[in-house]
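I hope you will forgive my troubling you with a question about protein structure. Here, with my thanks, is the record as I have it:
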Amino acid sequence: MSNLPKIAWVGLGIMGSPMAENLIKAGYAVTGYTLEADKLQRLADAGGTAAASIAEAVADADVIITMVPASPQVEAIAYGPEGILENAKSGALLIDMSSITPQTSIDLAKNAAAKGIRVLDAPVSGGEAGAIEAVLSIMVGGQQADFDAAKPLLEALGKTIVLCGPHGSGQTVKAANQLIVAVNIQACAEAVVFLEKSGVDLPAALDVLGGGLAGSTVLARKTANFVNRDFKPGFRIDLHHKDMGIVTDAARTVGAALPVGSVVASLVASLRAQGDGGLDHSALLRGVERLSGYDLKG
């Protein structure tokens, strides 16, 4: 019998599925629940156990990990008679790895404590590739003792794992991350159109730019998307739109100006309005193309 904690995983999407599978590879027993039957089958095929409900998934779990799109989904799975808080055992550790508002995380920790359940907010950065390769950056909010208990498990999912402060701090850092990523993608997209319209060899240009001060993880990860116009979602525009709403709202609350971030948030919103919300966030390139007179098909 393994001495490792028993894991319940709720939310097996683009990120959640490979992350849960990495825990299985690391020797953890993982029971999962999600709304899509094919994702449950994928978990079972990887060696996990599919549950028929949240209540069934969490009932015997030592650690519960959630990875869902936004605050409303976190609240839906956490609260209510069929939710996590009513069905998890006292003493369990709930690690929410969704990207949500800091206040939602603070409220969840407070309500869970009343049930004897410990909570960490632990959103991630690195996208689908980082989830598959188990090299995510994980920014954590919560108590030191809970972080110490969770760290061996988190090390099966990521490489940079940092306790950023009390409950909600992980979400605040993730919001800052999403601000930086969106602005970076937008700058790269503008450079791509500028280079193409100037008649430069685009792959060569991006290669040399990547080796200098303009280089970034965003440029390295997204160069193929830009060159090939491959916008298969690793992280959808819809989700980045949600995250830009989180950071702009949080910044307003603390009195921080986001002059560039606010513009990029509007450009992300514009893409959604034009039907590109299901595409990868590298599709910010399409917005620059439209503004630059490209005749886009589809």
In short: The chain is about 55% helix and 15% strand. The chain has a mean pLDDT of 96. The longest strand covers residues 158-165.
